Amino acid sequence: MSKVSVSIIMGSRSDWPTMQEATKPLEELGVEFEAKVVSAHRTPERLFKHASEAHTRGVEVIIAGAGGAAHLAGMAASMTHLPVIAVPVASKNIKGLDSLLSMVQMPRGVAVACQAIGGAGAYNAGLMAAQMLALKDEALSQRLQEWRKAQTDSVPVEVE
Ligand code: RP5
């Protein structure tokens, strides 16, 4: 079995439609990942075990998505030296501004890389994780550069 390099965690199964976007660039670029429900508030012990042990399983980057009082990414970052990429999931009542502010305003000394609210943020979280891994993986770096060129080439000049 291939080594899982990226661990995608989310506060609830209800976050999966958003967080599934993160899997798209990882699949396109051939990066192995896992996806788990780990809630900062509902399953704090699961979070402690997952975040503190991730590096021992070979995980290199954590992507954490949550909505509302979204403490998942920050708490994960407090328990691991691995880079944590945060995805604010759009909440029902405040449309994700609450999630964004909960994730982005970290205290000095504990960093998370916070993305945009919603699906685009989740997608970019997957892309950012691949870019981090590509720093020490030449084959992945080549795939990433080809992927970027294909994206650029796919943008039409004409509007119709
Ligand atoms: C957060 O509360 C989750 O990340 C989710 O975005 C939100 C709602 O969760 P559910 O009530 O749908 O399980 O913890």
TrEMBL record:
Give one GO biological process term: 'de novo' IMP biosynthetic process
| Keyword Isomerase in record | yes
Catalysed reactions, as listed in the record: 5-carboxyamino-1-(5-phospho-D-ribosyl)imidazole + H(+) = 5-amino-1-(5-phospho-D-ribosyl)imidazole-4-carboxylate
Q: Name one GO molecular function term.
A: 5-(carboxyamino)imidazole ribonucleotide mutase activity
Pathway assigned to this chain's UniProt record: Purine metabolism; IMP biosynthesis via de novo pathway; 5-amino-1-(5-phospho-D-ribosyl)imidazole-4-carboxylate from 5-amino-1-(5-phospho-D-ribosyl)imidazole (N5-CAIR route): step 2/2
Q: Per UniProt, where does substrate bind? A: 12, 15, 42
Q: Which residues form the PurE domain?
A: 4-155
UniProt-listed SMART domains: AIRC
Q: Which UniProt keywords apply?
A: Isomerase, Purine biosynthesis
Q: Which domain of life is it from?
A: Bacteria
Task: Name the Enzyme Commission number(s) assigned to this protein.
Answer: 5.4.99.18
| Pfam families assigned | AIRC
Q: Known SUPFAM superfamilies for this protein? A: N5-CAIR mutase (phosphoribosylaminoimidazole carboxylase, PurE) (SSF52255)
What protein family does this chain belong to? Belongs to the AIR carboxylase family. Class I subfamily.
State the NCBIfam families in the record: purE (TIGR01162)
The entry's function note states: Catalyzes the conversion of N5-carboxyaminoimidazole ribonucleotide (N5-CAIR) to 4-carboxy-5-aminoimidazole ribonucleotide (CAIR).
Name of this chain's protein: N5-carboxyaminoimidazole ribonucleotide mutase
